[in-house]
Amino acid sequence: MLFPKISSLLTGFTDHHSHILPGVDDGVKKMEVSLKVLERYEQLGIAEVWCTPHIMEDIPNTTEKLQVRFAELCEAYQGPIKLHLAAEYMMDALFEERLEQGDLMKLGNAGNQVLVETSYFTPPMDMDGILRRIKQKGLYPMLAHPERYVYMNQKRYTELKDNGIRFQLNLSSLAGAYGSEAKDKALWILKKEYYNLVGSDLHSLRNADYWSTRAPRALKKLLQQ
């Protein structure tokens, strides 16, 4: 089941996509803010959070750097939420290099998924080839927030799913956080049952308030229709 019961939408929820690891990308900058976000999550009953910082040519985080920072977050946070570390990889030349080296932080308890993204406006060169090479490594490509890619249409979503690509929904897309086009696409993908995982894509404490209130209400209304 993609979503918990309506009566407790976020209780026991796992956030599979967040940028709360402090000071490593365009997400949360300070440790104290990360801890406030996690306190907010505790109030909502969220059980697990995956930290998925950006890795791209413009933000060339190394696995070692992120592991050190993650250990610092785990030491600072003493609450009940279970924390995990993966990454959100832009499908660029740096990703191809890391893929070839086997230097990837994987998403999910099975350790066999890689969270990837593209530019919002244009696909990477040889996108299908990159996705194929991920699968050749025995991994499942998990495409982050496909509803936000303006160059994709319904035909393309179906092609990707037919080729074994998994989809991760940004829950706040359903509340219109990224505009009406992304919302409409998210609703269509959801109706087709193409989504595999859900995340917040949270970048700030302000995002936490929006994501944890308006987005669940929108989903609850949708599920009751």
Structure description:
By secondary structure, the protein is α/β, with parallel strands linked by helices. The protein is 39% helix and 17% strand. It is built from 7 helices and 9 strands; from the N terminus they run E-H-E-E-H-E-E-H-E-H-E-H-E-H-E-H. It has helices spanning 31-44, 63-76, 93-101, 127-136, 154-162, 180-191, 205-224; strands at residues 14-18, 48-51, 54-55, 82-85, 88-90, 113-117, 140-144, 166-170, 195-199. Helix 1 (31-44) runs parallel beside helix 7. The longest helix has 20 residues, at 205-224. The two termini are 18 Å apart. The model has no long low-confidence stretch (mean pLDDT 92).
Order of helices and strands: EHEEHEEHEHEHEHEH
Based on CA inertia axes, which overall geometry fits? globular
Strand arrangement within the widest β-sheet reads 3-5-6-7-8-9
Number of DSSP helices? 7
Query: Biggest sheet, open or closed, and with what strands and sense?
Result: 6 strands, parallel
Distance between the ends: 18 Å
Low-confidence stretches: none
> Tally of extended strands?
9
Helical content class: 25-40%
What proportion of the residues form beta strands (DSSP E)? 15-25%
Judged by helices, strands and strand pairing, the structural class is alpha/beta
What do the pLDDT scores average to?
92
> What's the alpha carbon Rg, rounded to whole Å?
17 Å
How does the SSE layout of this entry go?
Blueprint: E1 14-18, H1 31-44, E2 48-51, E3 54-55, H2 63-76, E4 82-85, E5 88-90, H3 93-101, E6 113-117, H4 127-136, E7 140-144, H5 154-162, E8 166-170, H6 180-191, E9 195-199, H7 205-224
Parallel strand pairs: 1-2, 2-4, 3-5, 5-6, 6-7, 7-8, 8-9
Helix pairs in contact: 1-7
